[in-house]
Amino acid sequence: MKVLVTGGSGFIGSHVVDKLRDKGVQVRVFDMVMPTFRKDIEFYHGSLLDLEALRMALSGIDAVYHLAAVADVKDVYNAPHYSEQINVRGTINVLEAVRLGNKQRVIYGSTTWVYSDAPVDSVDEETALKAPSHFYSATKVASEYYLQSYGKLYDIPWTILRYGIPYGPRARDGAVVPIFVGKALRGEALTVAGDGSQFRKFVYVEDLAEGNALALMPAAKNRIYNLDGKERVTIKQIAETVGKIVGNVKIESVPGRPGDFGGKEVSSARAKAELGWEPRISFEEGVRRYVAWYKERRATSEAQWAAVDQALKAPATAKA
Ligand SMILES: NC(=O)c1ccc[n+]([C@@H]2O[C@H](COP(=O)([O-])OP(=O)(O)OC[C@H]3O[C@@H](n4cnc5c(N)ncnc54)[C@H](O)[C@@H]3O)[C@@H](O)[C@H]2O)c1
Asked: Which residues contact 94 (CB under 8 A, 6 or more apart)?
């Protein structure tokens, strides 16, 4: 069994690659940047906008994980036209490459943000979606619909995974847990808006990767699954957890922001019932692992710069 992972160099994709490899699945990464987290991965360099490259990358592939995207909502907000090309046209290109080839199953990395405008507080995969306010979510909903249309029209099997908010090693620095950890390690105070009771449910990235791997099971064909965390974590708890793990951290309250989003209750019961998936890593353990990774990354970088500095300062040795 060999799978292609688009976006396999990214945060979630690289963990999906690790998990699949652990389970004995062969992997080829399709990305426009080199995988940096491990060197033993077959890599096909290309862009989602290049249909021919995608078609060639599918040679010998049994299933496709499609995770490549403009994934940061701020980037999408700042570049909607470009983001539409990558997130929507890119998905059609993957589907088209599959249609012109061997019609392998496409497992798509979507988001629980597709529920953002549903007029209910608790949602599951049967909840009717409303046109989303955010353009990022609109691109993800469009991709979901294209997958299902290609499924119906061309008999291409699909699976849609709606991820909750992931955190853990390799996360981008601009997310809330990395920001708090970075500040705490620099000795800066953590600021909590209002009473800090706004909650989120986070899903540890290795748990998410496990859910992705399980989605290869035949039972997941033509199904949608929410993969969300279990614990409700308030902003205050995030700050306190980071404080507990890093130590000596000051937490300051600032005035609340009006209309702060309270979060929706997303059910992942279907993934548990059909795939046997449930998140296992507690928020505290996940933050502990993130802090360990963050410190190691910083130490490696400092050691590399120190070595360069030393090499450049050393007197040049005369050549014979
Ligand atoms: N991170 C989150 O909070 C989150 C939450 C829910 C869903 N998702 C979805 O999960 C998927 C992965 O997100 P992530 O956080 O790992 O993002 P990421 O930015 O870390 O990774 C995305 C990868 O896609 C690649 N890519 C971008 N444009 C490309 C192109 N034109 N051709 C080839 N490769 C391209 C990037 O190089 C990168 O390696 C995305 O589809 C995202 O929408 C992310």
From this structure: 6, 48, 54, 64, 66, 106
Within a domain: 300: no
- The CA 34 to ligand 1 mean position distance, Å, reads 14
Q: Is residue 319 part of a domain?
A: no
- Tell whether ligand 1 has an atom less than 6 A from the beta carbon of residue 269: no
Radius of gyration of the chain (CA): 21
CB of 166 sitting under 6 A from ligand 1:
yes
| Lookup: tokens for 216 | 């290869």
Domains in the chain: how many in total? Answer: 1
Pairing of strands 2-6, 26-31: parallel
173 CA to centre of ligand 1 in angstroms: 14
CATH number at residue 214: 3.40.50.720
Q: How far apart are CA 244 and CA 149, in angstroms?
A: 49
69 Cα–ligand 1 center, Å: 4
Q: Indicate the angle between helix axes 11-22 and 205-214, nearest 10 degrees.
A: 60
Asked if the structure places residue 186 within a domain, the reply is no
In a domain, 12, yes or no: yes
The total of other beta-carbon atoms located within 10 Å of residue 84's CB is 17
Structure confidence at residue 213 (pLDDT)? 98
Percent of the chain with pLDDT over 90: 88
DSSP state of 217: S
Strand partners, 232: 201
Instruction: Report how far apart the first and last C-alpha atoms of the chain are (Å, whole number).
Output: 55
pLDDT per residue over 255-286, tens digit each?
876 555 556 899 999 999 999 999 999 999 99
All residue ranges of the chain with pLDDT < 50 are none
pLDDT digits (tens, 9 = 90+) for 282-313: 999 999 999 999 999 999 999 999 999 999 99
